[in-house]
Amino acid sequence: MFEPWSSRPLAWERVGLYDPFIVNFHAGAFIGGLPEDHARFDQRVSEETGAVVLDVDYRVAPEHVFPAAIDDADATLKWLQENAEARWGADPTLITTSGFSAGGNLAIAVTQQENCHAPSPTAIKAIATFYAAIDLRLSPWEKPRPPNLPRNDPANLFLPLFDAYAAPARAKHLENPRLSPAVAKRETLPERVLLVVPGIDILVAEQIEFADRVNQKDLYDGECRIEVMHEKDLFHGYLEVPDLVVQRDVKDRAYGKAIEVLRETHKKHGWTWDA
């Protein structure tokens, strides 16, 4: 759990003085990963938004297949909605989510709870994801491969393991948005969604198609809710490699954009933070 070092903002306008709450879900292909992997992101988000940031763990495959991870994510959101105010002075009506890779799947899938989408007052207000795996209807080796993806990708050896979470449940839950949030109804999504999409990744097509489907319907209302930040020359997991591999200023483009979306969402709901 992360809070800003400076405990009070210079401009704090929200009536009631409760902090926003941001829930992040870690990467790991549903087979591993740790919340601590994203500590740098979590602390920066907290410092620059004034929010309480919680990076949560969840059960992983192959021991725990679908719906274990999303059940844990749903339980976390429900507990926070009921306890965040008393525990951390955080506002249960101003919760946003974020996630990396498999965690991006969960960050969107939690909106399928009735208490996490409109018209519930505790609806998730915005989502920011990074190379999110949002369509598990296809096995990893069946997904469209972009032309710039290396043919001899070392990750190919692990593709069967990457399918350990979804494979046992796929046939029964093919169109279940808790498994594949790419099929979620537009009405269950918040008004603001950011997808950071690196171009060297088998997950490109599903994220672009998801954004196009939802935004096409949104056009009738005059505003598109899903924003795609397409980093065409970067690869899956680039935010988690050492700065010697991908320079920090390149990573900061994605982090900065996510923070911008979160700050604007908070401001829309009455919270202003100038740290």
Give the tags.
single chain; 6 helices; globular; 275 residues; six-stranded parallel beta sheet; 6 strands; alpha/beta; Rossmann fold; 16% strand
Description:
With 275 residues, this protein is of the alpha/beta class. It has a single domain (19-268), classed as Alpha/Beta hydrolase fold, catalytic domain (Rossmann fold, 3-Layer(aba) Sandwich), CATH 3.40.50.1820. Helices cover 29% and strands 16% of the residues. The chain has six helices and six strands, in the order βαβαβαβαβαβα. The protein has helices at 39-49, 68-88, 102-109, 159-162, 204-218, 248-268; strands at 19-25, 52-56, 90-100, 127-130, 193-200, 226-235. A six-stranded parallel beta sheet has the order 2-1-3-4-5-6, with helices on both faces. α3 links the parallel β3 and β4 (127-130). α1 crosses α6 (248-268). The protein is globular, with a radius of gyration of 18 Å. The two termini are 19 Å apart.
